[in-house]
Design brief:
40% helix; 7 strands; Spore Coat Polysaccharide Biosynthesis Protein SpsA, Chain A; seven-stranded mixed beta sheet; single chain
């Protein structure tokens, strides 16, 4: 746990579904850099909640799966209620390295950013080609028409200042929330930064069909951008 009582309170939020294989180790490693770890079990049918609790996490369980966005919303609200000054989100499927949490925290603690994205593509791309293509399309849809661009709009490894977390209003229960939060941050004038991270793709990772998943997120991004434009022109 964070030994410096004067440092900002950092809380890690880990939304997950059926990740009993990995969640205990992720909680243990994340706890080295934060004051508290909150695991949001989004209706798992395995022992995810038990494994997370045994590793020392505070566990919030959804009785049934409500989606990654809904789980993240639950976690952010719980972290804010616990007094967090900074909130780190990371996946529970072992695709993010908790030992890189300090890399995400630095731009927040120095005042360079309000929201930090751990980008998989600032160094050599680590995603399979078919996944990167989908992420590139989604990121292009987010960037279109704006001068301040990012390279990984779909990364779930992020750090939010309290100000940024309080500005989030997640209404998309699925993975479209990742873009919704960035659009909201951009509209509110928050500073967004990216830092390079590694990631791990493995056989026991996401079971989502990448084509269907990518298409559903792309459609959500298109809808979110249209809502953004209508709001900007006063037509909503």
């Amino acid at each position: 746990m964070n030994p410096d009582a004067q440092a900002p309170k950092v809380v890690a939020v880990i939304p997950c579904l059926n990740e009993e294989r990995f969640i205990g180790g992720i909680v243990t490693r994340a706890a080295k850099y934060v004051s508290k770890v909150i695991v949001v079990d989004d209706g798992s049918t395995d022992q995810t909640s038990q494994a997370a609790s045994q590793a020392g996490a505070d566990v919030i369980r959804h009785p049934a799966s409500r989606g990654a966005g809904a789980a993240t919303k639950t976690g952010l609200e719980a972290a804010l209620n616990s007094g967090a000054a900074i909130i780190v989100t990371l996946d529970g499927d072992n695709q993010h390295d908790p030992d890189e949490i300090p890399v995400l925290l630095k731009p927040l603690t120095t005042g360079e950013a309000d929201l930090v994205i751990g980008s998989r593509f600032l160094r050599e791309a680590c995603a399979p080609v078919f996944r990167k293509l989908g992420i590139d399309i989604i990121t292009w849809l987010y960037n279109a028409g704006h001068k301040d661009r990012i390279v990984d709009a779909q990364s779930g490894f992020r750090a939010y200042s309290r100000k940024a977390a309080e500005a989030m209003n997640i209404t998309y229960p699925g993975f479209g929330f990742s873009i919704q939060t960035l659009v909201q941050a951009r509209k509110k004038g928050l500073k967004i930064a990216e830092v390079p991270i590694a990631c791990i793709y493995h056989d026991a990772g996401s079971t989502l069909n990448p084509f269907i998943h990518g298409l559903s997120v792309a459609l959500a991004v298109f809808k979110i951008r249209m809502e953004e434009e209508f709001t900007k022109t006063g037509k909503s």
